[in-house]
Amino acid sequence: xxxxxxxxxIPIEGLSPAKLWPLLDPAVxxxxxxxxxxxxxxxxxTRREADAAVAAAIRAREVSVxxxxxxxxxxxxxxxxxxSESLASSLLLALHLEHRRPMLAAFLDAVGIPHEDGLITGDxxxxxLEGPAVARAAHGLFERFPADEVAVYLATLLAMDPDxxxxxxxxxxxxxxx
Length: 178
What we know:
Layout: H1 17-20, H2 26-38, H3 44-58, H4 62-67, H5 70-80, H6 85-99, H7 101-111, E1 115-116, E2 119-120, H8 131-144, H9 147-160, H10 168-176
Antiparallel strand pairs: 1-2
Helix pairs in contact: 2-5, 2-6, 3-5, 7-8, 8-9, 8-10, 9-10
């Protein structure tokens, strides 16, 4: 599945996970929602947040939503919910960790961040990143993986931590310029 978002639709300035989420193709949102429910990701509260959001969106009681099959909950989550920043972040993380680990690993290798199969290891503290190195790593991803998937991944990093990943802004702008 490669169609995820039109590169030109990604707003680089003021980007947030909740602003990125509605730009995703419905099939990719579904993939992310299923990924969120497919694994614990050590975040049972995230599932509760997702169920509460589904309940609010379809005007049902949360207990009723929890009784639904996961497939149905995931589809409601993908189609009917306008997620909060927290939930949108969790959905985007689930998408990438479940379906795009080789890309994550390639990027983290290129910028020298320790990881285990695309999941950052260590104490979670990432030192200063050199702008040119980050830009080169981003360009390398565009050469190896589908451009729309790379754009969503890089936009996700930028949306989640704009200070750390500021160097990705120019790399994305370069790719999405008309």
